[in-house]
């Protein structure tokens, strides 16, 4: 742990660094591959929408019922004529979901289930959601997500600049697409808890990105007045200075979410926890990745298309070519070591320094000799 802390301190001070911007094409290619896989999964398998979005009924049986999950699923599909999803809860009861049925048919299905499961119909709890209400919930969720993205872009364009706003928007779309695609591939049900999880991870991803952008904005003031650093160099330093912090906060956030997903939803059988915990788990990991490997390198790409940044890059490269051995403690050719030395800093003095003789030495003595 002490070595990790020492590494983080050296990264923050700029003593060492990793060239994320130089390898941006690798990160772009990896992100495109993951995103295309998510889109294909979404197109082929589709989302398993919960009854809150398409309407239907949820029946909860008493505890410690004798019927198995497969038997209850068969009973529900026979009684309703629709596909059913059955989950065994931690207390031994069964949660039976039947989507796409009318509310007036719910009582008939409930009575049939009570006969098949050999329990009193009064002991089966039924929750009904109308199709029109579920459609309104789905529309409101998409509207809320759209408004959130628009406000984020406007805020970042005002607080920083439009290039950073565009990069953050691309990173957010990247995170949403991957999270939704994972839901399609895994087959987990999409519920209002999923929407809450999506909005949560978008806020987290945006927070992580803004931290890097704030450091980048601060370090690029008057950048064109020097010939030591390019915009990509400073972008790398901004990522490296916040890298360990981003990793630590992501790991700390993922640990309780992993507990909800794998222990609460998997081991204990609390299936409803899967709705929000999967979106949080995937989204937090994707958000940390996009803020480091997507957003900031994309900003560097966009900024270095500007004429003044292109001219700065030419001056910096020309100076490095003329004096490759001088000042390499700054931006070396491999881009892996950085320091905060001023451009025209005087060389450090190495070894003992000979103090000059004082002009006043010996004054006040008649002969300057010891008596």
Structural features, described:
- Residues 360-371 have a biased composition (Basic residues).
- Keywords: Cell membrane, Membrane, Protein transport, Translocation, Transmembrane, Transmembrane helix, Transport.
- The protein is of the alpha+beta class and 371 residues long.
- The chain has 2 domains: 2-49 and 133-310, Multidrug efflux transporter AcrB transmembrane domain (Multidrug efflux transporter AcrB transmembrane fold, Up-down Bundle); 56-129, Alpha-Beta Plaits, CATH 3.30.70.3400.
- 62% of the residues lie in helices and 7% in strands.
- It is built from 11 helices and 6 strands.
- Strands 3-4-2-5 form a 4-stranded antiparallel β-sheet.
- A hairpin with a 5-residue loop joins strand 3 (84-88) and strand 4.
- Helix 8 packs parallel to helix 10 (272-303) and helix 9 runs antiparallel to helix 10 (272-303).
- The longest helix has 37 residues, at 231-267.
- The termini are far apart.
- Residues 326-371 have low confidence and may be disordered.
């Amino acid at each position: 742990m002490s070595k990790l802390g020492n590494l983080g301190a050296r990264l923050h001070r700029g003593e060492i660094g990793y060239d994320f911007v130089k390898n941006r094409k690798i990160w772009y290619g990896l992100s495109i591959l993951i995103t295309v896989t998510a889109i294909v999964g979404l197109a082929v398998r589709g989302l398993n929408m919960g009854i809150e979005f398409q309407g239907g009924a949820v029946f909860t049986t008493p505890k410690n019922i004798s019927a198995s999950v497969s038997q209850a699923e068969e009973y529900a599909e026979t009684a309703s004529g629709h596909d059913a999803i059955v989950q065994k809860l931690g207390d031994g009861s069964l949660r039976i979901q039947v989507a796409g049925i009318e509310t007036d048919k719910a009582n008939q299905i409930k009575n049939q289930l009570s006969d098949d499961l050999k329990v009193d119909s009064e002991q089966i709890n039924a929750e009904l959601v109308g199709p029109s209400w579920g459609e309104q919930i789905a529309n409101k969720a998409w509207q809320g997500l759209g408004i959130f993205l628009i406000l984020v872009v406007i805020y970042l364009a005002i607080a920083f600049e439009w290039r950073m706003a565009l990069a953050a928007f691309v990173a957010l779309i990247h995170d949403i697409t991957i999270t939704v695609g994972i839901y399609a591939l895994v087959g987990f049900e999409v519920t209002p808890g999923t929407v809450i999880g999506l909005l949560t991870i978008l806020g987290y991803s945006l927070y992580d990105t803004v931290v890097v952008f704030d450091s980048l904005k601060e370090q690029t003031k008057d950048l064109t007045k020097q010939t030591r650093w390019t915009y990509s160099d400073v972008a790398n330093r901004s990522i490296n200075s916040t890298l360990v912090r981003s990793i630590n906060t992501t790991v700390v956030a993922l640990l309780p979410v992993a507990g909800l997903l794998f222990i609460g939803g998997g081991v204990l059988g609390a299936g409803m926890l899967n709705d929000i915990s999967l979106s949080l788990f995937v989204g937090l990991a994707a958000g940390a990745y996009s803020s480091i490997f997507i957003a900031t390198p994309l900003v560097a790409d966009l900024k270095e298309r500007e004429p003044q940044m292109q001219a700065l890059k030419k001056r910096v490269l020309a100076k490095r070519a003329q004096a490759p051995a001088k000042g390499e403690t700054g931006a070396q050719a491999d881009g892996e070591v950085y320091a905060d030395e001023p451009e025209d800093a005087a060389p450090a003095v190495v070894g003992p320094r000979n103090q000059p003789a004082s002009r006043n030495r010996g004054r006040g003595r008649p002969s300057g000799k010891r008596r």
